[in-house]
Amino acid sequence: MNKNEKPFSLKGKGTAVGIVICFVAVIVMVGAFTFNNYQKKLDEQLAKAEEQTEELTKEKSEATTANDIVLPEAEDNTSTESETGNNQGEAADNSATSGAASDVWFTEESLLEWPASGATLINYSMDKTVYFSTLEQYKYNPALVIGGEVGETIAASAAGIVTNIEQNAQTGTTVTLDMGNGYSAVYGQLKEVPLQIGDYVGSGETVGYLSEPTKYYSVEGPNLYFEIMKDGNPVNPLDFMES
């Protein structure tokens, strides 16, 4: 071997190492490129999946909104049907009241039933005064004061509509019936009245029950205060009763 010749093996090894390094570098670059493409495709697929999910959610939301719109309409229909039923019921009640009111027709020729069990204690008198035992004085009397027993049933002398129920110092619990054509009947000294304003009361039906007398009639004893009025003015009840 000549001294000027270099060992071939070292040079060959260096070349081989360089080639390997280049090859590895190429592989790394290809791998990185491939990975980047894969990641990009994966991101695109994920984004597409999210868009599809959002569309499905939106469709479901719109479907739910549509259902929400339909349901209240059904409830409104039910409410309308209920209101219609109530209106029909009220119309029937009004019709019944109207029919009953048509029976309220009192005239000069009409007759009154005797409203209590007893006899007259104090007569009607508006042209001269009469004596009141409890008050120990003479005064005008716009009604009949009729004797009776505590607790007895007081019946309507004629059909009418209840226009007033009041507590009066002189006549106690007092009920007024509109009998039609300007005529009305007033029943005083009552208790346990089973009526309300607006009720129709047929002739002979219960107006109330006879109560203990007020302090203004303590000497006369239990009695029914019975007054008939025409256009707000008292008239003699006996003029409408058979003698």
Summary of the model, kept short:
This protein is an alpha+beta fold and 243 residues long. It is 39% helix and 28% strand. Strand 11 and strand 12 (233-235) form a beta hairpin.
Write out key terms for the chains shown:
single chain, 243 residues, alpha+beta, Glucose Permease (Domain IIA), 2 domains, ten-stranded antiparallel β-sheet, 39% helix, rod-shaped
What CATH first level of the largest domain would be assigned? Mainly Beta
- Give me the CATH superfamily of the largest domain: Glucose Permease (Domain IIA)
List the domain count as a whole number: 2
Distance between the first and last residues' Cα: 177 Å
Question: Could you please describe the fold and organization of this structure?
Answer:
The chain crosses the membrane at residues 15-35. Residues 53-99 are annotated as: Disordered. It comes from Faecalicatena faecalis. Residues 143-237 form the M23ase beta-sheet core domain. With 243 residues, the chain is α+β, with helices and mostly antiparallel strands. The protein folds into two domains: 1-102; 120-240, Glucose Permease (Domain IIA), CATH 2.70.70. The protein has one helix and twelve strands; from the N terminus they run αββββββββββββ. It has one helix spanning 8-101, and strands spanning 120-122, 125-132, 137-141, 144-147, 153-155, 160-168, 172-180, 183-191, 200-201, 206-210, 223-230, 233-235. The strands form two sheets. Strands 1, 4, 5, 6, 7, 8, 9, 10, 11 and 12 form a ten-stranded antiparallel β-sheet that branches. A two-stranded antiparallel sheet has the order 2-3. Strand 7 and strand 8 form a beta hairpin. The longest helix has 94 residues, at 8-101.
